[in-house]
C-alpha cells in the first residue's frame, strides 16, 4: 500500500486547508520599532608613564562625502572608504577631546563642540565628562590646537560664560597672530572667515587667563607644543611625556585616519593651506610610525587612541589594544 500522497493530492489538500475559514488569521500586529538605544558613556582611560589620559567622546556629525576631498575623484575616495568598511555615500566625523591628569594639572586639549540642541549628534562631551568623573571646574588648563569651531565652541557654557571657570587657556602664537588680526580675514579662504569672530567671542571670558605659546614650549610640565601648520595657519599638536613613555595628541593632522592616513595626499575641504597640511601630515605620520608613538586624534574613531604603521605609499591606523584596567 502506498502511504505517501501524490504531489497533486498534497497540493489540493493544502489549498483546501488554506481556504477553511477558521484557519486564515490576520498577521499578528508587530510592535513599533523601539527608539534607538543610547550607547554606554563615551570615555576611556590609559596611562602614559604616571600620567592618566582620558579620551572623552563629543559625538559626531555626518556630511556628504562628495566634495569633501578636493583633489581626488569621488570614485577613488569611495573606493578607499569601501576598503575600510565605511559608507561610501556619507562621511561621519567623530569628535573626541583628550584630557591628561598630570601630578599637578588637569589638562584638556581643545574644548569640543559645546552646547548643541538635544537632538544633535554632537555636543556630548559634558555628559561624558560627568560620566568619567571630570568636573569642568577642576580643569586647570585648556590647550588649544587651533581655532575651528568644533575645537573652541565648548569654551562657553549655555549662559555664554566660561565653561571651564578656573582654567588657563593656552593658544598657539601663530594661530592667534592670524585669527586675532581682522586684516587677515579677507586673505583667508571663505570657509575660514567665520573663525575670526567666533574665536574672539569664545575666548572673551578668559581674557585675563590667556597665555600664548610657541613650538617647544611646555604649557604644563611634560606637555610640549609642536608646530603642525597647514590645517590652519597655527595648527599645533602636543607631545605628552613622562619618563620614557610618550604619546602625541595629533589634533587635526588627519581627519578620519582610515581615509587621510591611507591617502595622505588627499586634501580635505577644511584645510586652510592644503599643500602645507599634506606636508605636515606626511612628516608627522612618518615620525609616529617610525618611532611607534601612541597617538590620540580629534577625529579618530572612538576611543581615539592608537598607532600608525607604514602601508605602501600611505599609513594604516592601528587602534591601541583595549584594556579594562587603567
List the helices and strands and how they pair.
Layout: H1 7-19, E1 43-48, E2 51-64, H2 74-83, E3 90-101, E4 106-109, H3 125-132, E5 141-143, H4 149-152, E6 168-172, H5 173-179, H6 194-203, E7 210-213, E8 223-227, E9 236-242, E10 245-249, H7 257-260, H8 274-290, E11 294-296, E12 305-311, E13 314-319
Describe this structure as you would to a colleague:
The N terminus is likely disordered. The chain starts with 6 loop residues before the first helix and ends in a 7-residue tail after the last strand. With 326 residues, it is of the alpha/beta class. Helix content is 22%, strand content 25%. It has a 7-stranded mixed beta sheet with strand order 1-2-3-4-5-6-7. The chain contains 8 helices and 13 strands. It has one domain: Metallo-beta-lactamase, Chain A.
Helix content: 10-25%
Rg measurement, Å: 26 Å
Quaternary class: single chain
CATH structural architecture: 4-Layer Sandwich
Amino acid at each position: 500500500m502506498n502511504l505517501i500522497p501524490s504531489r497533486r493530492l498534497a497540493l489540493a489538500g493544502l489549498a483546501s486547508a488554506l481556504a477553511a475559514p477558521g484557519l486564515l488569521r490576520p498577521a499578528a500586529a508587530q510592535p513599533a520599532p523601539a527608539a534607538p538605544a543610547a550607547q554606554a558613556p563615551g570615555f576611556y582611560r590609559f596611562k602614559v608613564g604616571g600620567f592618566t589620559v582620558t579620551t572623552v567622546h563629543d559625538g559626531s556629525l555626518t556630511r556628504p562625502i562628495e566634495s569633501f576631498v578636493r583633489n581626488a575623484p569621488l570614485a577613488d575616495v569611495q573606493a578607499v572608504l569601501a576598503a575600510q568598511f565605511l559608507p561610501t555615500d556619507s562621511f561621519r566625523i567623530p569628535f573626541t577631546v583628550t584630557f591628561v591628569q598630570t601630578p599637578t594639572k588637569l589638562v584638556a586639549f581643545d574644548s569640543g563642540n559645546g552646547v548643541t540642541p538635544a537632538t544633535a549628534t554632537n555636543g556630548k562631551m559634558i555628559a561624558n565628562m560627568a560620566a568619567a568623573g571630570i568636573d569642568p571646574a577642576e580643569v586647570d588648563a585648556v590647550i588649544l590646537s587651533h581655532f575651528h569651531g568644533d575645537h573652541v565652541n565648548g569654551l562657553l557654557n549655555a549662559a555664554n560664560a566660561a565653561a571651564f571657570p578656573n582654567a588657563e587657556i593656552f593658544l598657539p602664537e601663530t594661530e592667534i597672530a592670524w585669527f586675532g588680526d581682522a586684516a587677515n580675514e579677507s586673505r583667508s579662504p571663505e570657509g575660514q572667515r567665520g573663525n575670526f569672530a567666533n574665536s574672539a567671542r569664545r575666548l572673551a571670558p578668559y581674557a585675563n587667563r590667556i597665555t600664548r605659546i610657541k613650538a617647544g614650549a611646555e604649557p604644563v610640565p611634560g606637555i610640549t607644543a609642536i608646530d603642525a601648520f597647514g590645517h590652519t595657519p597655527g595648527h599645533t599638536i602636543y607631545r605628552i611625556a613622562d619618563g620614557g613613555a610618550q604619546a602625541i595628541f595629533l589634533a587635526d593632522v588627519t581627519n578620519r585616519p582610515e581615509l587621510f592616513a591611507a591617502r595622505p595626499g588627499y586634501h580635505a575641504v577644511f584645510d586652510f593651506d592644503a599643500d602645507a597640511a599634506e606636508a605636515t601630515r606626511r612628516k608627522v605620520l612618518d615620525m609616529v610610525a617610525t618611532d611607534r608613538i601612541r597617538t590620540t586624534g580629534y577625529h579618530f574613531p572612538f576611543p581615539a587612541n592608537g598607532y600608525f604603521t607604514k602601508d605602501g605609499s600611505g599609513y594604516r591606523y592601528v587602534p591601541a589594544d583595549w584594556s579594562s584596567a587603567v
